[in-house]
Automatic annotation (TrEMBL):
SUPFAM superfamilies: Periplasmic binding protein-like II. This is Tripartite tricarboxylate transporter substrate binding protein. InterPro entries: BUG (IPR005064), Bug_dom1 (IPR042100). It holds the Pfam family TctC. Residues 1-24 form the signal peptide.
Length: 324
């Protein structure tokens, strides 16, 4: 029953029932646990902690952040999938955990479409197409023309197999019918340094990571891989503005609950978390590390999950990315 409920929410989120007065009265009867499937100190952990106090005050219950790292988020996600669906256990997960693990791992131990139900999106940070300043291109069209001057295309810096940044570059290749050869590095900062040193002259990397290098002139920002410009680099146009609207990639963090969690609990949790996210203190704190608050309805998060899963399945299949 839990599995059918979650799948239907992702497939047809617009059919969500409207909350009633009885539903709005839900309140937790014991502390709420927000499971973060990564170590303390990272962006996902920050997302949980910025709403922790606001949730506790609004719900009149203690809210505990429980870090359960391992297997790129799979260990903590499996744990939440197995918990009672009563509103007292939530998963605070990165986009990679919810929409990339399921398409690059043979058996992550959880099924996003069957084991979880959306609560709200928390924050987003887009990727950015960047090049070394020596590359003779300043627009997407010029980058495509430059790439096509090489039989096998240029090398591109990859932040790791199956990362949103690698998949973002592979998506760019598919949409523009270009070639480029991945050169793997140990994470986004290392990949950015590789482009700065011209070891690989092009990459799609997280805007929060490469933004300071673009501002300093060490990299050239070509396009933001999202629906709107990046506030810290407003002069860099989006892919949509440059004729590639299908190119959307980046990192985001969302909160989901075990499938089958009652509607009154889900609606109340969404209301409380969205209110906590929209405070100036939270908005400013996340902006300092390059993330924008993107508090959403459950339906909107359901659409995001479904769209990203479909997008990355296509990229993995068409780019022949190995599934482990």
């Amino acid at each position: 029953m839990r599995r059918r409920h979650a799948l239907s929410l992702l497939a047809a989120p617009l059919l969500l029932p409207r909350p009633t007065l009885a539903q709005a009265a839900w309140a937790p009867t014991r502390p709420i646990t927000m499971v973060v499937p990564f170590p303390p100190g990272g962006p996902t952990d920050l997302a949980a902690r910025v709403v922790q106090a606001g949730m506790a005050a609004a719900l009149g219950q203690t809210v505990v952040v429980d870090n359960r790292p391992g297997a790129t988020g799979a260990i903590g996600s499996r744990y939440v999938a197995q918990q009672p669906a009563d509103g007292h256990t939530l998963l605070v997960a990165a986009s990679g955990t919810l929409t990339i693990n399921p398409v690059v791992m043979r058996n992550p131990g959880y099924d996003v479409e069957k084991d979880f139900t959306p609560v709200t999106l928390v924050m987003t940070a887009p990727n950015m197409l960047v090049v070394h300043p020596s590359v003779p291109a300043r627009t997407v069209a010029e980058v495509v023309a430059w790439m096509k001057t090489m039989p096998d295309g240029p090398s591109y810096a990859s932040s790791g197999v199956g990362s949103s940044e690698q998949l973002g570059m592979e998506l760019f290749k598919l949409l523009t019918k270009t070639e480029a050869q991945a050169v793997p590095f140990a994470g986004g900062p290392a990949a950015a340094q590789a482009v700065i040193q011209n070891l690989a002259p092009i990459a799609v990397l997280n805007a929060a990571t490469v933004g300071p290098h673009v501002e300093a002139g060490r990299l050239r920002g070509i396009a933001i891989c999202g629906p709107r410009r990046f506030p810290k680099l407003p002069e860099v146009p989006t892919m949509t503005e440059q004729g590639v609207p299908e190119h959307v990639s980046g990192s985001w963090t969302a909160i989901v609950a075990p499938a089958g969690t009652p509607e009154p609990a889900l609606e109340r949790l969404n209301q409380v978390i969205v209110a906590a996210l929209k405070t100036p203190e939270v908005t400013e704190r996340l902006a300092r590390v390059g993330f924008a608050v993107d508090a959403t309805s459950r339906a909107e998060l359901g659409r995001l999950l479904a769209n990203d899963l479909a997008r990355w399945r296509r990229v993995v299949r068409e780019a022949n990315i190995p599934v482990n």
